[in-house]
Amino acid sequence: MSDRKKVTLPTLFKKVSDGQPITWLTCYDYPTAFLQEKAEIDMILVGDSLGMTMLGYDSTLPVTMEDMIRHTQAVRRGAPTAFLVGDMPYMSYQPSVETAIRNAGRFMAEAGCDAIKLEGGAAMADRLKGIVDAGIPAIGHLGLTPQSVSALGGFRVQGKSAAMAKKIVDDAKTLEKAGAFAVLLELVPDRLCKLIMERADNCIIMGLGSGPHAHGQLLIYHDMFGLYPKFTPKMAKVFGNAGEVILNGLKQYASEVTAGSFPQAENWFGMKDEEFDELKKML
Ligand code: KIV
User: Fold this and answer.
1) pLDDT tens column, 17-74
2) Spatial contact of 126 and 118, defined as CB atoms under 8 Å apart
3) Of 20, 38, 76, 282, which one has the fewest beta carbons inside 10 Å?
4) Which residues make Cβ contacts (< 8 Å) with residue 158, sequence separation at least 6?
5) Which atom of ligand 1 is nearest to the CA of 45?
6) Which residues 6+ apart lie within 8 Å of 31 measured at CB?
7) CA nearest 72: which of 88, 94, 90?
8) What is the structure's pLDDT at 18?
């Protein structure tokens, strides 16, 4: 474990005022959280992307609150000092302000989160405001919002036309006014991200595939390490091919067991002769 102090909202705002970019990664399990804690990643998002990366669905839509809580609890156990963000899954906040507050509260009470994130602009601002008014820090999410992938016409860059970009600028300001302490911009043009950041008064602008100008960067852990088998998006850099390392290890294991060269004496436990003789007598 690292011995850093707990990352809090003031820690994040201090980084912004010091001009230091914030690091943010997705994470869904205890061993990965342990490593991210050791690497002193500032923020961790238990994203509903776990539906795709961990559960093998084609989209994030089937993910439930129970899925999210179970994974978030595991991540908190592995990363006690990271700023932990729970991602509100599909239909955990869209139906009403009350539904949104109750489910956001579960992330805080049952999983030890520091904040929640929800997708959507002006149409979701009342949900976000309700959550913030209940004392729960909230992050907005604009641009490519995977829960609306069908309405958006697929996983594609958002805000390329002036009209669409204006809507995202307006939505960002609306979320900030509703109380969002941060807004994540996913897959928007770099200049749009910069413009929104410059117009933010007291709101941290985080980017995912939106260029270098944000207050910090988010990446999906599985994309960074070659762990998602279906595709690696352009916005992700592969920092190490763990998928390949694991695959080679699996093939080696299979061939050693087949050849009888695994296990070796150092991999098993013996028994004293007298105990074994006694056992045989007992049989
Ligand atoms: O679920 C998730 O990981 C996310 C990111 C794609 C931003 O919401």
Assistant:
1) 999 999 999 999 999 999 999 999 999 999 999 999 999 999 999 999 999 999 999 9
2) no
3) 282
4) 142, 143, 144, 152, 164, 168, 186, 187, 188
5) 3
6) 78
7) 88
8) 98
pTM of the model: 0.95
- Per-residue pLDDT at 81 exceeds 80: yes
Gap between the Cα atoms of 116 and 147, Å rounded: 16
Pocket test for ligand 1, best of 67, 208, 221, 224 (most atoms within 8 A of CB): 208
- What pLDDT is stored for residue 23 in this prediction? 98
The strand pair at 216-219 and 204-208 is best described as: parallel
Question: What pLDDT digit, counting tens, does each position of 182-240 carry?
Answer: 999 999 999 999 999 999 999 999 999 999 999 999 999 999 999 998 888 888 999 99
Answer for the pair 131, 181: CB distance below 8 angstroms, yes or no: no
The angle formed by the CA atoms of residues 165, 192 and 13, to the nearest 5 degrees, is 120
Protein residues with CB under 6 Å of any ligand 1 atom: 26, 45, 47-49, 60, 87, 146, 184, 186, 208, 218, 220
C-alpha to C-alpha distance for 183 and 44, rounded to whole angstroms:
15
